[in-house]
Specification:
Blueprint: E1 8-11, E2 14-21, E3 25-39, E4 44-50, E5 54-59, E6 62-66, H1 70-84, E7 90-95, H2 100-105, E8 113-117, H3 121-130, H4 132-135, E9 143-146, H5 150-154, E10 161-167, H6 181-190, E11 191-200, H7 208-221, E12 224-231, E13 239-246, H8 268-273
Helix pairs in contact: 6-7
Bound molecules: S-adenosylmethionine (SAM).
Length: 282
């Protein structure tokens, strides 16, 4: 076997990827092959082809998105906030190196500019070449790729964006500060006066501390806030949370008419039902 990082093992003649979630839970996927494996200055970037989930993006051994269920996460983090904004023109995505969120945003003809600020150019290169089920090899001229730290990018920005989507990896390494109060305060300033933001707020089952803290930060900084959910099979526990903050527009999905945008998961019923939360998430 070639030299791979420790999360790839050979067992009974098969290659396996094992994601280690906080040392308490290990999730393994049987692989067909490792398609791409390189260390960037930021993290280890890997694309594998798996039996059940097809191609998968793995950063430092953690599954980020897959051909089978990537659309669920990317549609939910993108279409919910954009649908709730009555007149979106300029969108900022922080992270999102698999290009799935930018690809979904590009489905809105009324958007004039989509800035994507990703800290690691290698993630975008690898996904455009080897994970087109998610990236669609995105080449929309409205999408500007900016390869820098999202934290630094938003600091000092004022009144610029209608919608900001924080599509970050887990709160460790380069993404740790993307869950901080100061970062969300800068996002609040970078939004126009009626702007809307969303972030992924982790597993409501396994990362209750992160979800609770994110809900408190966003509620403190925005007039309206809410958490919504989706089931993404490759994330630990399956059930995943997103937290949205709006400066002016109330979060009233029942008043929004969803347009057909060639989505596989998101629709009118999903927009309203995703805000119905189980008791322990409220
Ligand atoms: N859907 C995924 C999930 O929840 O696991 C996250 C998707 S996306 C691949 C996350 C991206 O955030 C990665 O490509 C990573 O390089 C990027 N990222 C992490 N920290 C960042 C930072 N400080 N600024 C900009 N991008 C960052």
């Amino acid at each position: 076997m070639k030299q791979y990082p420790e999360w790839i093992q050979e067992f009974d003649g098969n290659l396996w990827l094992t994601e280690n979630d906080r040392d308490n839970l290990k999730i393994s996927y049987r692989l067909k092959e490792v398609v791409f494996s390189e260390q960037s200055p930021i993290q280890h970037v890997m694309i594998v082809d798996s039996h059940d989930f097809g191609r998968m993006l793995i950063l430092d051994g953690v599954v980020q998105t897959t051909a089978l269920d990537g659309h669920i996460y990317n549609e939910m983090i993108t279409h919910v906030p954009i649908s709730l904004h009555p007149n979106p023109k300029k969108v900022l995505i922080i992270g999102g190196g698999d290009c799935g969120a930018a690809r979904e945003a590009a489905k809105y003809e009324e958007l004039e500019q989509i800035d994507m600020v990703e800290i690691d150019e290698l993630v975008v290169q690898a996904c455009k070449e080897h994970l087109q089920e998610v990236s669609g090899n995105l080449s929309d001229p409205r999408v500007n790729f900016l390869f820098t730290d999202g934290l630094k990018f938003v600091a000092g920005k004022e009144n610029e964006y209608d919608v900001i989507i924080v599509d970050s990896s887990d709160p460790v390494g380069p993404a740790e500060q993307l869950f901080s109060y100061d970062f969300y305060a800068n996002i609040q300033k970078a939004l126009k006066e009626d702007g809307i933001m969303v972030c992924q707020s982790q597993s409501p089952l396994f990362h209750q501390d992160v979800l609770g803290q994110t809900q408190r930060h966003i509620a403190d900084l925005f007039r309206h806030s809410a958490t919504y959910k989706a089931v993404v099979p490759t994330y630990p526990g399956g059930l995943w949370s997103f937290t949205i903050g709006s400066k002016v527009h109330p979060i009233t999905p029942e008043n929004v008419e969803v347009r057909p945008l060639n989505t596989k998961y998101f629709n009118q019923d999903i927009l309203t039902s995703c805000f119905s939360l189980p008791e322990f998430m409220k």
